[in-house]
Amino acid sequence: MGFLKAKGVSVTVAGREFEISFNMNVIEAIFEKFGTLNDFQKALRGSDACGNLRTTIWILSVMINDAIEEENEQSKEKAELLTERQLGRLLPPKDFFALRDSLFKVWIDSMPKDDTPEEENEETPPEVPAETNESDELPDDGADELGKN
After folding, report:
1. Of 142, 104, 133, 134, which Cα lies nearest the Cα of 22?
2. Model-level pTM greater than 0.70?
């Protein structure tokens, strides 16, 4: 089985391009907020439009801020991190679905893949003896009759 790969996807917000990725920092933030990846997925799907919107903006802010922090580590100029409220103001509603699609793409591309060729995955079945001697059979201990009245 392969490992989680932090592949990135470029997204543009307010004219600025960010390379967002689903990396260990993002996973840690998800665990802190939701407890499990399954609970995060449920929230991302949302039981209502508002929950879905809120969760999408939250995870995008986590991913974008992680990208900003990475840029800050490599640059002399330090950009400020975005709050969820700031990001919400910067995201035009018409771009929401495209950004959400980018989020799903980076999520799917980052998931572990089984890198082992199929023929290596096949297990050889155990050999079954052609004949069974009566002495090889287990004695009847009456377990089949337990619980029957």
Report:
1. 104
2. no
